[in-house]
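Internal ticket #5521
Category: modeling
Description: The requester needs a full-assembly model to guide mutagenesis choices. All entity lines are attached below as received. Residue total reported by intake: 677.
Assigned to: D.W.
Attached entities:
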Amino acid sequence: MSLTYLEAIREAQYEALRRDPNVFLYGQDIGAFGGAFKATKRLVDEFPKRVLDAPISEDAMVGVAIGAALEGARPIIEMQFADFSACGFNQIVNHAGTHYWRTGVPCPIVIRLPSGGTAGSGPFHSQSMESVYAHYPGLVILTPATVEDAYHMLLDAVALDDPVIFCEHKFLYYHLKADSLPDEAMPIGKARIARPGRHATIVTYSAMVHESIRAAEELQHDGYQIEVVDLRSVKPMDTETILGSVARTGRLLCVGESFPWGGVCAEVIARVVADGFHLLDAPPQRLNSKDTPIPYHPNLWRAHRPTALSIAAALRKLLQD
Amino acid sequence: MIRCLRRPPTAIVKTPATASTKKHSAKESFLTAYRHMLSARLLEDRLATLYRAGGKIVGGVYLSRGQEAFSAALAVQLKKGRDIYAGLIRDQAGRMAFGEPLLDTTRTYLGSALGPMRGRDGNIHRGRPKEGMPAMISHLGTSISVVAGMLLARRLQGRLGDTVGAASVGDGATSTGAFHEGLNMAAVEKLPMVIAIANNQFAYSTPTSRQFACADLIERARGYGVEGYKVDGTDLGDCLDVFEKAVERARHGHGPQMIVGTLLRLSGHGEHDDASYVPPQMRQSDLGRDCLPAAEKTIRSGKWLSDSEFDSLRIEVQQEIDQAFAQSMQEPAPDPYKETWSSFSTLELADGWQVR
């Protein structure tokens, strides 16, 4: 049996629906059509009352999820693209994110964001929103980089009593395959050493884990062993694993696909500088996309986001410092 | 004035009650609503006094003066403990009519650590989400989809029964995207909802002429495919009638019901606002009629309460309010050193949640 990252997300939703009658899916085109990416393919046939098409109303979709969660339901909202969650931003950050702290009543919702760039998708179908939502209190932000994590972390997200922003990467949907799914996975909040090394650490997440591993393989030819840390969840952030890796390597490069200003990479570096300054042999670096909207043409798009090539270049510079 | 904008697709089935029992139940609801109106007015007068005196209330005070009839009339038609009621900024009367204890108001305004919001949120931003009373946020229109979601969950769980969910908003909220999306979605799902719009002529200081261009908000009902009714929001009897009908129609499968109450806010947006933007002639018009003495007039003309009964009701309500304030003032304030600074309910996920 071979399974893609996208199929794992579909399987996790099937399993969540099967396990708990309180789980339901709500989103645009997710019913008979099976979703824009087919992440809910044929789920409506199995669970006709619990896979519901929504109007193009992201604010209302999240509001519905919040209300349903208060009544004991476990909604999974599919945003057609992460970019459109901006239209539901208010309900996400001001309503779902504040609910438990204000009222003492948890708000267990999962919002799936098909995230990140693919060639030709342009400014409004390519964004990565994890840094934006991580800024606000009350939201768990998950960024699975593997088929196994896509499956298990989505199930964990549904079981969690807090609102979860589930950033699944569209570039990985079809590219990434696994032969089987393990029965268990690491808990939410724990980072994973995706590749061990001793000369420098890359802290990254989501699709950039794979670009970073390719860059690390490239540098192996020059005799460098690069450690790659996959954050898995950017909030909560596993500072301990990050510091442990930097303690081994003395050098840090943080790679993210989201825009450069502020964000997850800035947070990682701030934490390492604050708590592990003495571990650093060189100034920590970050590599994000460029500070422009995401371009349409593949030539521009490839230059806009970090790639194995640009990560390798950043690593070489870091290793010379 | 009650106007049904869209002819109901089926005749309303009325229980074959005799005229006398019908009148009796109308009288009961009227008096119940009146009691909550009176309680809201006296409580809010006290809040305004405390605000002006300074020191006890740190945030703003938002009064519902002039809107008590429209607010209470909806909530008294709902079943406490079974239906859903999402009150907003000017629903002191409605919240109490739906069963919110007086202490929730006084504790939340005074910041008691024992209140439902424990000093984490204040004044009107309160609720009991597990008892059908979601806690409003300041972003208008957001409660409509939340109530819709509550109903949708009950439907999925097979326990919707004849539940009705009500959301209360003002004319200003009708301009938000959240209002449009929520009402549209509720209509698509044909949910048993009542959306009460108190058109108090001003969103903060902005008059309706700068808020919408349609001749009347009730015209929007047709666009959403929901039934719409308009009512004089200063007339408690009319409000009770229209909400009784709307709640029944929602309960019996006729989908969302939109009710626009026309009235005037007889205070500022908050007590910091002198409402000097309200033209004097508007205050003197029918819109500016105070619903509380108007309801008292109806009660007196029907001889439903004697003078002494009026007096003892007022004393009783005042005592309840005094007691709630006195108790809340003696309660502990929240302590930042004992606060659990975690916005996650899953404490092990909280990052640095202890006070540093």
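Resolution: model delivered.
Comment from assignee: The radius of gyration of chain B is 20 Å.
Ticket closed.
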